[in-house]
Amino acid sequence: MAKKSSIEKNKHRQELVAKFAAKRAALKVVTKDQSASMEDRFRAQLALAELPRNGSKVRLRNRCEVTGRPRAYYRKLKMSRIALRDLGNNGQIPGIVKSSW
């Protein structure tokens, strides 16, 4: 099990990303627009720098929803390999059967 503080920090980042996504996207469009004036692009860049850093999507970390483990994460199932194995062995994930021969 991961530290509670790490899990909560990532949840807080997810909330910030959702909150500032539209504003960040609009500012990025202005900064990349070559037809806009240099001053407008510079102002948009400064406004983008004023936004919280944790509001950037790059700062998010994929974590297992069962244990909070950050590594060996399966995106499709949103869990780590260890949690997948435990739940699969117990028969709690439909369609996953432990192989035996």
Commentary on this structure:
This protein is mainly alpha-helical and about 100 residues long. It has two domains: about 1-60, Orthogonal Bundle (Helix Hairpins), CATH 1.10.287.1480; about 60-95, Ribosomal Protein S14/S29 (30s Ribosomal Protein S14, Chain N), CATH 4.10.830. Helix content is about 50%, strand content about 5%. The protein contains three helices and two strands. The protein has helices at about 5-30, 40-50, 80-90; strands at about 75, 80. Strands 1-2 form a two-stranded antiparallel sheet. A hairpin with a 4-residue loop joins strand 1 (about 75) and strand 2. The protein is elongated and about 70 Å long. The relative contact order is 0.14. The mean pLDDT is about 90. Binds 16S rRNA, required for the assembly of 30S particles and may also be responsible for determining the conformation of the 16S rRNA at the A site. Part of the 30S ribosomal subunit. Contacts proteins S3 and S10. One of its GO terms (molecular function) is structural constituent of ribosome.
